[in-house]
Amino acid sequence: MNDTFSARGSILIAGVTTIDGSTADIAIDETGTIVAIGDDARGAIDADIIIDGSERLAIPGLVNTHTHAAMSLLRGYADDMLLQDWLSQKIWPLEAHLSGDDVYAGTRLACLEMIRSGTVAFNDMYFFMDRAAAAVDEMGLKATLAYGFIDLGMEDKRETEIRATEALVRRIASLNNPRIRAAVGPHSVYTVSLAGLSWCAGFAKEQNIGIHVHLSETGKEVTDCLAQYGKRPAHLLDDCGCLTTRTVAAHCCWLDESECRLLGQRGVHASHNPASNMKLAVNRAMPCHWLKQYGAGLTLGTDGCSSNNNLDLFEEMKFAALLQKFAWNSPTLLPAGEVFTMATAGGARALGTGPGTLAVGAPADIALLDTRAVCNTPLFHADSNIVYACNGGAVRTVLCQGRILMHEREVPGEEEIIREAAAAAHALVERAGDEG
Ligand SMILES: N[C@@H](CCSC[C@H]1O[C@@H](n2cnc3c(=O)[nH]cnc32)[C@H](O)[C@@H]1O)C(=O)O
Ligand SMILES: [Zn+2]
Fold first, then answer.
1. Fewer CB atoms inside 10 Å of the end CB: C or N, the chain?
2. Complex ipTM value
3. Rounded-to-integer distance, Cα 404 and Cα 135, Å
């Protein structure tokens, strides 16, 4: 087993079921690229490792486009509250006591949870991101990491956030790990000044990196923005240059049709976070149908573990499909195939990690599901089982860029990761002098 995880050779996944129901071999070379799929794949490489694909369904690894990974330490710390109260009374006071070690422990726990539920890449915004990068580096996933930029209209705070953003981008460049990228993370229109937003846009352009922002999460965000600036949040972000083809906008719940058109024109990727939105009762579902109509990117995210409270994108796919139907009153909206595409190709395109499909030339970012699991029985339409019946527990094996991160539900070192995260979470709450 240790050989399986440490090896860096070529891999053959033999006789695996694909999403269309056929059986194929998948050949992966030493660089972690899929070099052949089908009957002829076996001959394409001299495989160092052979993974038995019988009773396994191969899907592209899932991509989570909105997380605060280290908030895994805050899972269950404060639930059932109003968004503003939850942030200002519980989360932000606790976060004031966070250390870099906490972010490292929490991000490792989050990576473990994502691997165990078939996710290979994520888009994160938080503090101490150099420590998050170290965790991702070790755990073997792909991530785009942004320092959450919040200036609250104060010039001295803006300077601090600018320095922190610049330092993270330098740090990630120095890691020289192609799996880890930096982005600029202006938190939102209600926490960042116009000068801050404009600086973020300019810096992202200069560095040729993405932007990760919260957009139109609540009705209050929209009414406050209209009162303060006389325009809606997406138009304000656009004035500051924050809407680009490399922007991921999380939530997008309260966008009107003109804002959806604008996101489409700018080629922005919207991250739908249905579990967080329902839990915090933001009271409107992202208008997927308008965003799709106007050509914006559609992707899926979980948000942090204290508003979800897990990172399982299988559950998120189901919530997305159900919420769209319920909120917009049509059972034909967001069918299984479309939500599966959001969680795979849509997310991969947004983060630039590949096509998000199993194809020759694509990176071997692959999850293998158990076809004999109850949730996959019977298996008439794989996308339906995946979206409506399964959760992450159906995932048996995960590869990221051809590296085996989990095999038959074993992830190396997981007991230590869990123990250290639990200890860090309890010590944090104790330091903050509040038992939650
Ligand atoms: N430099 C910032 C750090 C911001 S990290 C990103 C922030 O987003 C917060 N956050 C998490 N979930 C949500 C959400 O749903 N809406 C808005 N903010 C959130 C999270 O708790 C964290 O404080 C500072 O000095 O405060
Ligand atoms: Zn968030």
1. N
2. 0.93
3. 17
